[in-house]
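Recall from the previous lesson that a structure prediction takes nothing but the amino acid sequence as input. Here we apply that procedure to F-box domain-containing protein from Ephemerocybe angulata. The sequence below is the only information supplied.
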Amino acid sequence: MYASTLESLANLDHEIARLEQDLLALKRRRNAASPVYRLPPELLSKIFFLALRYMDVDYSKMRPECTKMSICAVSHQWREIAFAAPELWMEIQIQANTKAQYLDLALKQVAENQEVYIDGWHVTSNGGVGVLRTLEAGKKWQVKRAVLNASADTIHRIFDGLDLKSEGTEALELTCLDWMGKLLCANALSGAFPHIRRLFLAGWEVPSASELVKFSALADLTLQRIAVITPEGMQAIFLILKQARHLTHFDLDILSTEGHFPNGPWPTLPRLSKVKTLRISSGDNQIASILLSALYLSADIERMTVVFGSPDGRFNPEISRQAASTLSLALMHTTAPKSLLVTSTIGDDGVEKGLEYIGFGAQWDGKRTLAAFMVVPGASSWEVGVTSQKLYSLPFINPEDWLLSRLESIEVVHYPTFPFWEAIAGIPTLQKISVRAWQRNDCFTRALQGDGLPDGSLRPGTTRATPFPALNSIGVIFTARSLDTAFKNGYAHDLASALRTRAARAGHSIPGPGQIDIVHFYCCASELGIDADTHNLLLSVAWDVRCSASTAPANFEFCRDSDALDTY
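The prediction returns the following tokens.
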């Protein structure tokens, strides 16, 4: 009885094992017939890699090592492909509580001479051990970039004890969580990564030039979130720029100054002929002005961003005027731009998203751009009267100002006071303008028909006969606040009337030589809502009238997509 029972159990075990093998074979046949199985392994590896790259959509719910494990556990076949895919282990993420098992797995899977990117975020002293271990294991890899976000002590412990000389490392990013820590491991860094081309330092004091000059191949330097700058720190920045002769990109972000900051004298730097990208941001206009005054920029600099962030600029218009003057003087030796976008942080609903930053995005061609930001004051009611929208005093009010002097096209998605529009109307080369419609008889239509001051009187001594003398194209943007059909038709009537008055001032007939080439309306609604009579009226002052279901003309995409204009 007992023997027969054991024999029955053994037979059952054999049958279970056979059935399991049959089931596994069936699953393999099923997988082989599935579309996923037919994908090339290279494509599957890209799927895994991209899934990891974009996991930060909801970063808090899934840690990087868990994501790798979950992706690899989809199926036996997928797991084999994933573990064999070098791209899956191209990025090694280390956090405060990253487990040693994950590092063991990652370090085991990285192939010899493979390119690796190491990211350490909010690393504690315990996590620093993992970073050190990962970096030192990089002797058999090519560590292309290392990113570390930790306290100054943790960063110093990692790099002071690092036994590594990585010839292939191109970028190093160190963020100090202590806020204004002192970088004391520059010698260790330059020894471990002798050929770094990009160095990103955030939250540190300004390092000394003698430390940075050890990075002989340095071409891209970023000093972010310098909380307080001292005169000694400013001198160090000048010395860095003077000695780092291979720099092609320089990014400086200074939040404030330490007490009274002297006006000078400050040195004038040699021509920065190799710098193609420059960004200067300061919460004190004086700092940005000192730097711009000292720099002698190459005339073919490709991308330049300057932020004049003095908060007092919202009360005193002279502050932004001085900033505009400094910018013009710094670039006077270069050719003025042909295109300009004027924008701000004020939303379509009129709600302020911070200080009243005004952004000027200038463009020469598809390669060379300038973005300048300033804090500007709002105009008082006695200056502009009663309006449905708060207006702002802009610092450029002369058509001969460097930024305006050669413009051929401009887009204004902001609410400047009338003096700015007067200046725009006096630019002899301006051919194309796009504006945001917000009120009947607004500043633009008044400037278009040649009004002088807000009360209608002419400016004393003016000799300008025709406003916008070269104009041939007008774009009008109707936002969500201006979708009322009556308003749109009324604004179109005002525009047609202003164009007739402009033509009369120039002595041109309408229809005829006084007509411009095109009026283009941009509206977020599918229907513009312009009636037939209004459309015919517009055709009497323009050869072509168009409408697009959009609130943004296709100009200045370089500015709409830029980091600078998204930040402020």
